[in-house]
Design goal:
Blueprint (H helix, E strand, L loop, with lengths): L17 H19 L11 E6 L5 H12 L3 E5 L12 H8 L5 E5 L3 H10 L4 E3 L7 H15 L6 E5 L4 H13 L2 E5 L8 H6 L4 E4 L2 H5 L4 E4 L11 H7 L7 H4 L7 E4 L11 H4 L6 H20 L1
Parallel strand pairs: 1-2, 1-3, 3-4, 5-6, 5-8, 6-7, 8-9
Helix pairs in contact: 1-5, 1-12, 2-12, 3-4, 5-6, 5-12
The structure holds phosphoric acid mono(formamide)ester (CP) and norvaline.
The site of phosphoric acid mono(formamide)ester has 8 residues, from helix 2.
């Protein structure tokens, strides 16, 4: 590669400046309008994205694959089952090899350290498609969705109800980068990482009472109580989170114009009731669609 562009990775929302992130969200909305108008836009002709999935996916896989095709490039799906990664070839060697052949690599894996190692040995941009620590691509789509429905999120109040998990960590980073107030309501023992909470300073507050967190909030967000890799903790987690289900009564405490988001997949009757997920103030289907537009903006930024 003789490209003189400085190498950038998107492993975490903090890897980009607030200006860059807001630029991606605005560009995502432009790309969405172009796509809906049937306008072809193929700046990535001839470019290839490798996608390594060590966990399941519907939205991330399809949005990246369709997005690359729309931008004129192509994407390849790699699972550890069918590659030498699954037979013990080191991440460092995989990064060295893949990045000599493709233009960008997206990875969904368990330990965040694995993606950092990959990025260290990669000659091409690496995108985090979810780790146990965070899910930054989802936040681009979430910020786009909120902005499209209600305008700028800066200065608003967001309530996170449930697990202090990877999505919660990305909401905390987003509170810092997009300048909103975040109230995290989680049961004792399921708090987000205190170092991540500290990064957001006064913008993030941990509360135990979900009703108090949701009070007059502009946006209410939740996620599964059992993330990928935690299947064995199912019974214990369902018990711990029983009071943290987002139902209509809880959502009615939010501001009258409040929206509901969920990265999906959702488990109706667990973290959210069906009447909330399927109601008009739930914009989860727009949110899912926006994964594709937001990631197209990201790919264009990194590779264009
Ligand atoms: N929200 C999200 O990342 O969905 P998938 O697990 O289907 O990719
Ligand atoms: N917290 C969930 C998000 C899925 C997109 C998980 O990690 O499984």
């Amino acid at each position: 590669m003789t490209d003189s562009k400085p190498l950038r990775h998107f492993l975490n929302l903090l890897d980009f400046t607030p200006q860059e992130l807001n630029g991606l969200v605005a560009r995502a909305t432009e790309l969405k309008a172009m796509h809906h108008a049937g306008q072809r836009h193929t700046p990535l002709t001839g470019k290839t994205l490798a996608m390594i999935f060590e966990k399941s996916s519907t939205r991330t896989r399809v949005s990246f694959e369709a997005g690359m095709a729309q931008l004129g490039g192509s994407a390849m799906f790699l699972s550890p089952r069918d590659t030498q990664l699954g037979r013990g070839e080191p991440i460092e060697d995989t990064a060295r090899v893949l990045s000599r052949m493709v233009d960008c690599v997206m990875i969904r894996t368990f330990e965040h350290a694995s993606i950092e190692t990959f990025a260290k040995y990669s000659r091409v941009p690496v995108i985090n498609g979810l780790t146990d620590l965070c899910h930054p691509c989802q936040l681009l789509a979430d910020m786009q969705t909120y902005t499209e429905h209600r305008g700028e999120i800066a200065g608003r109040t967001v309530a996170w109800v449930g697990d202090g998990n990877n999505m919660c960590h990305s909401y905390i980073a987003a509170a810092k980068q997009f300048d909103f107030t975040l109230r995290v309501a989680c049961p004792d023992g399921y708090d987000p990482d205190p170092d991540i909470v500290a990064l957001a300073g006064e913008r993030c507050e941990i509360v135990r009472d979900p009703q108090a967190a949701v009070d007059a909030a502009d946006l209410v967000v939740t996620d599964t109580w059992i993330s990928m890799g935690q299947e064995e903790e199912k019974a214990r987690r369902e018990q711990a989170f029983a009071g943290y289900r987002v139902d209509r009564a809880m959502l009615d405490r939010a501001a009258p114009h409040a929206l509901f988001l969920h990265c999906l997949p959702a488990y109706r009757g667990k973290e959210v009731t069906a009447d909330v997920l399927d109601a008009a103030d739930s914009v989860v289907w727009d949110e899912a669609e926006n994964r594709m537009h937001a990631q197209k903006a990201l790919l264009e930024f990194l590779l264009g």
